[in-house]
From TrEMBL:
Identification of the protein by name: Histidine kinase
Gene Ontology cellular component annotations, sorted alphabetically: membrane
Molecular function, one GO term: phosphorelay sensor kinase activity
Spans through the membrane: 7-28, 40-62, 74-98, 110-136
InterPro entries with a match to the protein in the record: Bact_2-comp_sensor_kinase, Sig_transdc_His_kin_internal
PANTHER family the record matches: SENSOR HISTIDINE KINASE YPDA
Keywords linked to the UniProt accession: Kinase, Membrane, Transferase, Transmembrane, Transmembrane helix
Domain Signal transduction histidine kinase internal region: 155-230
Amino acid sequence: MKKPIIALLHIGYWMLYSSLLLLLLFMLNNGAVWNNRQLALFLPLFIYVPALIGFYTFYTFLFSRFLVRKKIPALLLTGVLTSLLAGIAGISIVWIIWKHRLPYKEQTTAIIAFIVMMAINALLNGLVGLVMRAFISWYNDIRWKETLARRNAEMELALVKAQINPHFLFNTLNNIDVLIEKDPAQASDYFKKLSGILRFMLYETRAEQISLSDELAYIEKYIHLQKIRSSRPGYVHYSVEGAVGNIQVAPMLFIPFIENAFKHADTKKQDNAIVVKFDMREREIVFHCSNRYMPHMQKQETNEGGLGNNLIQKRLQLLYPGKHQLNIQTGNQLYTVHLKLSV
């Protein structure tokens, strides 16, 4: 929800609250309890001070601290204590303004009664603040899910275009065809890898999340198929460190960078021309991908036949807001991608 709309909600609520105050002033302003000056000064303090404290304490602190985390008993206890403190704060202000004397004969009785009434006032306004914040959060969640669904639809279309790369399929099938006569066993192995890649692209990528082990298996098959296009398989260095465990990630999260590296690597005759590394740490995945390129290939990012960096960054922002760090550097004929992902 946009900030101006949220501001209007707050203004509208306090205007309604002020209208009720004016109505109360009109009903009580008969001169029987206090004179007009006393009434005009006492009631706003009595009504607004605990109301503001209760409303915004519940709205800001208690919502994020307890309600979001579903700590209901702690919410109730803290809410009651906050309301009592708001009542004490309100009566203290009134006490100071009236120079340690309330406009009522029975001072002790008046203090206790006013604290209780102010605490109830703070509690009721706090509950309203809690409901308003919950409504805003619920509305933002719906908007976020709609945006995510729309972006995912765009991403799925882009992924399909990136996945079904005619050049990759054509070259791989040609290489397999050549291997059928020279080494049927190896040709069969490569054909199974290609079949596994196609199966993964058609079925696994539709899920919101898949196991990291499946994602890595797909990447490994892809790299193996790319290696058969070179007489020097050592031009690709691929490694995985740490325990994969049961980590779940969004599908096709790393492969666009790897595809980009193979597309723009300047040579297949040099060792470690492409380096792909995964480092599994505690609740964190560190991904590194780099490739060497020719000096004239300064701009490696492309949307043609693959995913551009802008689209990839948007996807990361939607799927992992505040939980990722993407750093892309170009220099010394080396294009490097470094991605940290909290899971």
